Amino acid sequence: MSRKSGRSRLLAWMLTAAFMSVAWATQVQSNPAPRLASGSLSVPVAGPATCPAERAVYELRVPDSDDVWRIELVPAQNTRSIASDLYMKLVTPVRTYWFKFEVSQGYSGISVLPVTDPYSDTGSRDLLGPPFGDNPDGTQDPDVLSTLRFLVFDESLTVLFEPPVSGDEAPPLIMMPEIGQTLWYNTAALTDSAGADRDPMPRGMFKRTGCLVTPHRPIPD
Predict the structure, then answer these.
(1) Which end of the chain, N or C, is more open, meaning fewer C-beta atoms within 10 Å of its C-beta?
(2) Percent with pLDDT over 70 in the chain
(3) pTM score, two decimals?
């Protein structure tokens, strides 16, 4: 092989390598890989990338079933909680439950306390007894309160310490890991429906599955 031929091949190889590097850099810039938080997973969310809390739709589903458990964060007209201006509405295949948010100091975190339908003719009132609520006939069992933890996660599965409020970005994931225990064994503590029977609910995460055009309407048209 001549020296001239060797130089020509080396020059051709260098030009090809440079071209491939530019093409690769352009592709990465136009299609960046998802960024993951250190030591965590990125959680894909259906619907728009951003959504105000009062318009978010959350659903919990289980395999091989058409049943859906749904959470709505409904704007409050007259709220009894200073923790949030939203009510949490839990809709199961059996019935609907309403809750207000409470935040405890220390490691207790966020809880949801059951109330009657705030948009009924009689308005909202506590369903739990003292010291958790002001209903003299409500349960005072601390084991019930321990099942009402409300966990909010961001995209990196980090637990947030404040409940959703109107106008804030809706978290992608919500979990109430123990509430199913009370829905099954002590349903009457969470509703004023007469003769409320056991309400089975799986343990899992509620995933944000959509974003409404307007906030949840508490009263049907």
Answers:
(1) C
(2) 74
(3) 0.74
